[in-house]
Design goal:
This protein has 119 residues and is an alpha/beta fold. The protein contains 5 helices and 4 strands.
Amino acid sequence: MLILIAGPYRSGTNDDPQLIQQNLQHLESVALPIFRKGHIPIIGEWVALPLIHLAGSTRIGDDAWQEIQYPVAHGLLEKCDAVLRIEGASKGADQDVKIAQERGLPIYYNIEDIPYAKS
């Protein structure tokens, strides 16, 4: 499965770059365990951040950021097979879950609940 990892990125940071980096590291911390279960993990920021930079964004929340950040995650959901929603308040992650539910995708809330891929 291609599994979108959804959780806080900007939420609760007051746009502090250090706190945002900590949130990204927390999202990334579950990527390897997903991979080791035989799946491909994806985080929206892995795709969005380089595009945001290329679009000339100078600060979080500016027009270039808004143009790309959430549309990338929503586009990825069109390709994903499941979502892992990690803990923490996040409107964006909650929206990802809502879209995934509308598509009928499985939503996991614990890494342990993700099945191993069949060989």
